[in-house]
Every structure is written in C-alpha cells, then in structure tokens.
C-alpha cells in the first residue's frame, strides 16, 4: 500500500497531465543545463580565465567559490518565486524563472576575462551567477508542484519525478555540448575563448523551452485554492506553522543527496584531472554515462514508490548512498580506468533512488495554498547546505590533507545525518492517513 497522499481529484485529463510533465521536464533540463555548464567550467576553465594570478589550488577554490554563490542566491529566488507562486500561480513564475536563468547564462558567455578588464571580470561573473541562482531557486519546487498537481490518481510520485529527470538530462546536455565544442575547437582555442559558445547557446535553448512551457495550463490545485479563497497574504509564514521539528527533519533528510551529487558531478572533474591525471574527456564521459543511467531509472523508481510507498525506498537508497561514498574515492584512486568508471556509474545507479522522490516528500510537507513557498524554502536550504558548499569543502579538505580521505569522511558524515533525519521524519509523520499536503477528495471539491 503506497504511503502517497490521495490524488488531487482535479479531474485533469491525462493529455493535459502528460503535456505538463513534458513541459516541466523540458524547462528543468534547460535550467540545469545552464547550472551544470557553469559547474563544469568552474572545475576546468574559470581558474585560468578569471583567477590567473592565483596558484592552481587557490584558483580552483576561487572558481568553486563563485559556483557556491549561485547556491547562496537560490534561497532568495525560492522565497520570491515561492511567494508569488502561491499568490498568482505556478505557471507565470516558472516562465520568469526560465527567462532569468537563460539571460544569466547567455551573458556569462559574453563576460570579458581577467586579462581584459582585471578585477571586474570575476565581479561580473559573480553577479551573473547570482542571477542564475535566483532563477533556479524559483524552478525546482515550482516544476515539481506543477507536474505533481496535474497527476492522475495513484501517480503522484511518477509525475513529480519528471522535473527531477531534468537534473541528469541537463547535465548530459551540458557535457555533450561542452565536449563537442572542445573537440571541434581544440584544447587551446577552447580554453582561450570557445568555452563561451555553450553559454551563448543558452539563448536558443531557452527560447525553445518557453514555447513548450507557455502551452501548459495552470495547476488545478492552485486554481481550486483560488476558488475556495485560500490564498494568503504571507504564504511562507503560514507554511512555517507545519512546525520546526518536521521542517528540520525534512531538510536534514534531503541534504545528503545534494552533497553527494555535487561532489560527484563537479569536484570529481577537478580532482580527477589535477590529482590523478585522468583525461578530462574520460571523466566527463564517465559522468555523462552515469547521468544517462540516473535519468533512465527515475521512472522505474517513481513507479515503485507509487506502488509500494516511497519511505522504505528512500531509507534504503540513503543507506546505499552512504555505502557507495565509502568506496567511491578508493576506486578512483586506483588510477585504473575500469574501476574509475565503475565508481562513476555506481553513483548514477544509486543517486536516483532518493533523488526521484525527494521533491514529492518536500511538497507533501505543506498544505496546497502555501506549498510553493514552503517547498522552495526546504529545497533551496538543502541545496546550499549540501550541494553549494560540497565542492568548496571538498577542495579545502583535499588541500589541507593532500588526500581524498577527508572528503570521504565528510560525505559519509553528511549521509549518516541525512539517514538519521529520514528515519526520524518518517517516524514523526504517520504512514497511514492523509498527509497535511493531501488535496481534498473530488467529492468534497464538488460540494464547495
């Protein structure tokens, strides 16, 4: 018996639900393309372009610091877009978030480097990274809600998983464009100026995404909240009434997935090329292959969650991530390509087990009329505490010790805390009966 809340009861047709799912997948793919493109460039290019006077280690730290800035900005975007998403609707805010992300990424491709304008080059880079962060801060929770709130009965986890697929899809797209541009231009030309091409392509990709996103209808759940006069003036304040204990445990439960994912996706590129002498192309292809597996397995795991319940699956996935973090760097450190590929692909197999349902778990913490604000707060705080700081902390630990052992213990510690948080959260919230975020049944809607 699934522990998912009852279906929305909105009467939305499967065609509209499917169109919305595809639109949210397309939008999140494009936004994550922009975000991961920056992460890859930060690991491999930006230290030379924007911090050339620093040592290699300090330059990498500086580049990862600008990467972290985007995460610092994400809660601001989450708060702003969450507020208006609960007051004026999901669709309009998601259109604006996509535009912000596209404009920020396109302009990054046009920023002069340090040799051209000195100090102002990293300043402009940071400002545009803030724009990226604000845009993505409004995307994650809103896209999950938009798809989940259109879902047919019994398929809430499946539909909430479509926007989650945008994370690995965006990474695959970013890496394919990055590698293709590098191969065509050559290493020297790519490092000099051709790295800008993938960022400039964001303008075209976002235009396509907007055409898809503008065709979807507003969330039936939000429309019903408007009809029943449930829209509140300060939705975030209302969302906090869920209680700080539950909010804290939900936040703790999702931190590990973000931390592990960003060490795997971003820090590994820098560590593998500079410390282990792996070829850049090999590592990017390995991460890309793992991301394809990540993408392809999300529908399977979300169907499992809809059929059997997501709690046991989430806890089991949390244990698996912890165990693989113990093995990940030792496998990389063998300097054997086959074992390194196993380490990377293993992450692609394990990460989606918890990633695919965490958006739905967060959403079901809050009532419908304040769900965007509450979900954005938890999602973005989890992202900054987990993913935003992970490459920076990992680089600092590596510089301090000269070994990846500290990074391994850091990841194991974060995973253990998240596992404890998930177990405590699921004990706190009864498995049977409606969750606080569950929509009223269709019969009740008809009588109001």
Q: Main attributes?
A:
disordered C terminus; mainly alpha; 448 residues
Q: How would a textbook summarize the main sheet?
A: none
Q: What's the average pLDDT? A: 86
- How many domains? 1
CATH class: Mainly Alpha
Q: CA-to-CA gap between the ends?
A: 30 Å
CATH fold node name: Growth Hormone, Chain: A
Shape: globular
Topology:
Blueprint: H1 14-44, H2 46-50, H3 56-87, H4 90-108, H5 114-117, H6 120-137, H7 140-148, H8 156-185, H9 187-194, H10 196-200, H11 202-213, H12 220-227, H13 235-239, H14 244-274, H15 280-308, H16 310-332, H17 337-363, H18 371-388, H19 390-401, H20 405-428, H21 442-447
Helix pairs in contact: 1-3, 1-4, 1-6, 1-7, 1-8, 1-11, 1-14, 3-4, 3-6, 3-18, 3-19, 4-6, 4-7, 4-11, 7-8, 7-18, 8-9, 8-15, 8-17, 14-15, 14-16, 14-17, 14-18, 14-19, 14-20, 15-17, 16-17, 16-20, 19-20
Compact description:
With 448 residues, the chain is mostly helical. 79% of the residues lie in helices and 0% in strands. It has one domain: MFS general substrate transporter like domains (Growth Hormone, Chain: A, Up-down Bundle).
Structure, explained:
By secondary structure, this protein is an all-alpha fold. It has one domain (14-447): MFS general substrate transporter like domains (Growth Hormone, Chain: A). It has helices at residues 14-44, 46-50, 56-87, 90-108, 114-117, 120-137, 140-148, 156-185, 187-194, 196-200, 202-213, 220-227, 235-239, 244-274, 280-308, 310-332, 337-363, 371-388, 390-401, 405-428, 442-447. This is Putative proline/betaine transporter. The chain crosses the membrane at residues 61-81, 93-111, 117-137, 158-181, 193-214, 249-270, 282-301, 313-332, 338-357, 377-397, 409-429. Keywords: Cell membrane, Membrane, Symport, Transmembrane, Transmembrane helix, Transport. Pfam families: MFS_1 (PF07690).
